[in-house]
Amino acid sequence: MVETLSTDLLRVTRCDYCALLLPDADGGGLRVTTLYNPEARGSLSDGTIIPNDGSICGTAFRTGKTQYFENFEDVRYEVERSGSSLGRRIFQRVIDEGLVSGCGLPLLSRNGVIGVLTALNRSEKAFDVDEITFLEQVARQVAIAVENALDYEKAIRDRDKETKQRLYLEEEIRAEFGEIVGDSPALKTALDLVSIVAPTDSSTLILGETGTGKELIARAIHNLSSRRERPFVKLNCAAIPLGLLESELFGHERGAFTGAIAQKTGRFELANKGTLFLDEVGDIPLELQAKLLRVLQEQEFERLGSNYTHKVDVRVIAATHRDLTAMVKQTTFREDLYYRLKVFPIHVPALRQRTEDIPNLVRHFLKHYSKRMNKQIDQIPSETMDALVRYRWPGNVRELQNFIERAVILSPHTVLRAPTAELEPFSAHKGSNAPLTGLEEVERDHILRALDASNWVVGGRSGAAERLGMKRTSLVYKIQKLGISRPVSFSKGIEGPLQPE
Ligand SMILES: Nc1ncnc2c1ncn2[C@@H]1O[C@H](COP(=O)(O)OP(=O)(O)OP(=O)(O)O)[C@@H](O)[C@H]1O
User: What's the predicted TM-score (pTM) here?
Assistant: First the structure.
């Protein structure tokens, strides 16, 4: 369209040279694209950068006002005084091109000045007042065309970015192991429910301790549903700082809050036509729960900072290790949301409730890590397997998985050399005579022991999170919640809250 306009423009006005100048991506000035220059002398080529200071077009761009000169020699003094060496060089190239008069017309859009259209002549007094008015009208049309083209390009870029983001999110959920290992009756009961609920579009609530495989179950539901070809998007509500959770769920417009420098698509939009897996849904603050309920009921929401209502078609699968019934009683979780999510609850059993699955899981992880580490470990001593079956695995399958990974690293030959001594202090039979304490106390005690064993390092390969089979963020959250701090004797005199790393 710009080319057509410039040809029309040349037909109506006397013009020897016409170019479109758009801001350079590196922000260094305006980049020239020649539209018309039949008698080119080679001094002004496409891609030339014109500085914003010390140039006619730069001034038009900065001020948003037409700059017209009957003879460029009249401005030579000003250009030379401007101090911009690039400006002086460009000026000389214009003169070398034989162009002696003309104008820079700002391209005005609703978002401000987006570029400049320049029309120059090889003779003095290029245009009269009427012609300038006409050229300004042309520049308005060019601005619309350029703005549309830029919007289109941006839309393509956003779409590509979004596709990448989607792939990334799908990747995130694509767990390392495609299959769910185990044939214990307890696991089978859960899997039976998966196949019943999967083809329906019902919200599903997956309940179970940390590391039991809730995410695997959620993915299985998606894969068995008619949405399987559509995105599976995951959000761990406990891993996102509270202030950002709303925008993570629903997205935001540019400038919706301090720091919102660009528009953001929320997970609900990304999951459109697919499934959204809300992990740790019990961690969603009360004020956001109402908004979540609305999307579940109406399938519509607004991005932060916008009044536009987005309609979506998303199946929500939620998971939590928390006791939501207790939370409802304590009024920290909305009753209506609880019932909405709990249309079809699935309980994933803890590993200690299905110890018969442990040998299969051990073999499964052993095979996986041996292959990954290029080792040929194919023997598991029976006392090792006994110790693994006896241990209570508070971190469930994830803890077992991490333990086997460590064991594979430690095994130089074909026999699995597992550090089972590490498990002893936590084994089922140990401390069984100890008086029963509240759940939190047991949890606290267990975390303290793991911290002690890992020299109070939380993250990393030998850190407490790894030992407990928990995500580092979840452990840090627990440590803060239980008010655990490093005792003086451990920290060589430094007392205070534990540092995550
Ligand atoms: N039955 C299973 N077979 C194979 N691998 C499993 C099984 N259950 C869990 N895992 C593995 O254990 C790890 C933890 O599982 P997952 O993340 O699904 O647990 P989760 O209950 O969602 O944990 P959290 O509550 O901490 O989010 C994953 O690497 C998963 O692949």
Answer: 0.57
